[in-house]
Amino acid sequence: MKVAHLYLLLHSFLTACVLVNAFDPITTTVVVGVGATLGRTIWNYFHESCDPKWIAFNSTGLKADLESKLFGQHIASRIILNSVNGFMSNDNPKKPLVLSLHGWTGTGKNFVSQLIAESIYKEGMDSSFVHVFTSELHFPHSSQLETYKSQLQQWIKGNVTNCARSMFIFDEMDKMHPGLIDSIKPYLEYYEKLDGVCYRKSIFIFLSNAGGESIIQTALDFWKEGRNREEIKLKDLETLLSVSVFNNKNSGLRHSSLIDKNLVDFFVPFLPLEYQHVVQCVMAEMKARGLEPDKNVADQVARDLVYFPKSERVFSVKGCKTIESKLDYYM
After folding, report:
1. How is 169-193 classified by DSSP, letter by letter?
2. How far is residue 235's CA from residue 232's CA, in Å, rounded to a whole number?
3. What are the pLDDT tens digits along the chain (331 aa)?
4. How far is CA 291 from the centre of its chain?
């Protein structure tokens, strides 16, 4: 909506208010009704609402961001783009989209969640329809597990009632009480409605370090065999990953019925990052700060990180997680 159009709406609204007393009761009712409609339109122009002005999927933008900002994650990029694109293009999905992102720290799990939010919501992660839960902040006491279950159910129900296109991100799933996530299982099922609420257009994203060891071992095996990391396929990791997460005592999905009932659409592996990927991360961070990317500085930052195995220095221990502070030091 252009500013000129908004001005006309405001003018019409004010004119209607001035003329209300000049008409008979029936006409007054009509004018007030028109005024209320204009008022809602003006309100929605300035305040985020659950409509296409604020929620509109940008597939091209997501694809470009994954290609230019996420490094070393050929499997994750493909899964994320295809799954989100297919889901958001479907006006009548049969169930919510459920993604479980796994991998070592600094490999891009939180970053990908941000990219997804930015491709759907005009306000991105600041949208009132994007909800982030972290275990240590929102569910700190195991003794209150039953209370947390009830609160979580009510929170999700209330927010989806407010906007069907809601997104829920559960961070630190490896620190979450096993069984807590099972409390939202009904909302992830194929039900058309539950108590009058449809959850099918919502997105649920789980982030976890659980299963990271399996992913790292697979990447190491490929490296030791002299094979390119791009040869690693989802089929090499997905079953291994789901079993590892299901049996991991530190996983919020341990023995979860979400896995038993196949309600998680994709277990998305994030591979450990190599030196070249860290350099790319530094270059991208410099560009994001409005600086001219400097390969020499990027190399200095990348060399300063810790890699494993210790002798070969193949994979970054913390991925790209500390590059912002490292870059501050070198700049």
Report:
1. EEE-GGGSPTTTGGGGHHHHSS-S-
2. 8
3. 455 555 555 555 555 555 445 555 556 565 556 555 555 556 556 689 999 999 999 999 999 999 999 999 999 999 999 999 999 999 999 999 999 999 999 999 999 999 999 999 999 999 999 999 998 899 999 899 999 999 999 999 999 999 999 999 999 888 888 889 899 999 999 999 999 999 999 999 999 998 899 999 999 999 999 999 999 999 999 888 888 888 777 677 877 888 888 899 999 999 999 999 999 999 999 999 999 999 999 999 999 999 999 888 999 999 999 999 989 888 7
4. 27
> Phi and psi (nearest 5°) for 213?
-65, -40
Closest CA to 185 of 177, 176, 194: 194
CA nearest to 186, candidates 103, 258, 133? 258
